[in-house]
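Case study.
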Amino acid sequence: MTLSIQEVQHVALLARLNLGEEEKEKYAEQLGSILQYADKLNELDTEGVEPLDHILPVFNVFREDKVIPGPDREEILANAPLVEEGQYKVPKII
Amino acid sequence: MDLYELTLHELQEKLHNKQASSEEIVKAVFGRIKDVEAKIQAFITLDEEGALDKARKCDARGDFSSIAGIPYGLKDIICSQGMKTTCASKILENFVPFYDATVASRLKEAGGVLVGKLNMDEFAMGSSTEQSAFFPTRNPWDLDRVPGGSSGGSAAAVAACEIPFALGTDTGGSIRQPASFCGVVGLKPTYGRVSRYGVVAYASSLDQVGVFSREVRDCALVLNIIAGRDPLDSTCVDIEKPDYTEFLRDDIKGLKIGYPREYFQEGIAKGIKDTVKKALLKYEELGALVEEVSLPHSEYALPAYYLVAPAEASANLARFDGVRYGRRDFEAENVIQMFSSTRAAGFGDEVKMRIMLGTYALSSGYYDAYYLKALKVRRLIKNDFDKVFNDFDLIVSPTTPTTAFKLGEQTGDPLTLYMNDILTVPINMAGLPGMSIPCGFVDALPVGMQLIGKPFDEGTLIRAAYAFEQNTDYHTAKPDPGVM
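After joint prediction, the assembly is written out as follows.
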């Protein structure tokens, strides 16, 4: 099984990844072979089986609404590639 | 014996009895690192000055409780305040966290001395540490072979006596498989036992932090420090935490051990099966009841894992977009282009592949067929374990299908590499605690035995591991990588 180049392009756009032509071909093949392997799961009848998305019983954990010291703004911004007036700067969006 | 060769608990004794200072220990460790690191390449970052400074302060204070004054390393996926945390990825090459992961701050508060950050497969995706964007780490037992992965740097550094213990993470086997390849103890606790706060996420429903050490006792000592509820991680469970050193008893009489027939089938090297079966005889000799059991859905765990983990990864790794941290492509004209070219240049091949796979599995039209199907199969895998644990205390199997393979041997087809995880992945899917301990050698390469326990029953793993260790001497064998 091989994915089409169009399918790979669509997924790459969703994943926000620029891929070169060679990469697209490689992923078309590799993704295809992994998905083919995943088809093995269809050997199992899972009708009525409850999906297990989390191993623990998940519930909301509440804490007191209390002000505690947080990290310093400058410290957080120090890792950013581009900052202006204490804010992250990105290329024009609209 | 040189100080660097001592285990954590032996170093504790030295410090208590004033036979060594923390400064001497840290100097010995850096001496060892200088001797072997050029060959092993376990560390991405080393901080000799910071470590010596901390050691001297510790000596001045004279308090050697817990792990005070003892050196250790962290896998480079665990955030360390003021010290680069790269995930072995170009996209985080210069990232310096402004906070500590909970596990890092707990070790720090206990007085431990952080030596440096350890190499890994990029974003913990891989089984050989060859997927590091920087350099591969070598197996101390044979420098032509891989140390396993993804926590390969942690395993190799502990095996080569560069540090007495290290932390790693395990999403599908990333602690147990390298522990097995490098002949050390590796423990992956139950999902929810240890906080994941500040640990860069790969697959959030599977990731767990754990310990590498050369002896079981050290593993218990470190688990005592890192385990337990954390208000900063809502999945870290508020459940009673025992003193794990109380399980260090050389007594397993009456312990009921099951060995799953599916974990001893073709595809698992004969030498490995024979070695683990011999270990099972040892358990019988020590008074355990050993019986064959069945986990019938085992063969479906790997395909289900390779949908669930990449799906979660594709969501988790969306945060690396060149805005808040890491590298950015400044040439891009609009923001989508900026995201896409930053990520294309910053991520390595395997990471991109898994993001693509996960995005596909979650995308409209395929969600039910792949992701949801995998979650249903995950339930069946967990049910298998629940059933066996109704009658047994512990499950024992090989950790890996083969011993350490050669560098470059498994870099072509991703599926071949994924097969390494076939015996470890089901444990993550079911959220159980798992441990790998040295149980012998095949062709002078270490073999690991995997112990699998009930949820939150790390105690029984430690007890069984300790009993085996006390009655065998595999843990005393040390590799000789040769000094430079």
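Observations recorded in class. The CA atoms of residues 3 and 25 of chain B lie 6 Å apart. Residues 3-256 of chain B form a domain with the Amidase signature (AS) enzymes fold (CATH 3.90.1300.10). We will return to this complex in the next lecture.
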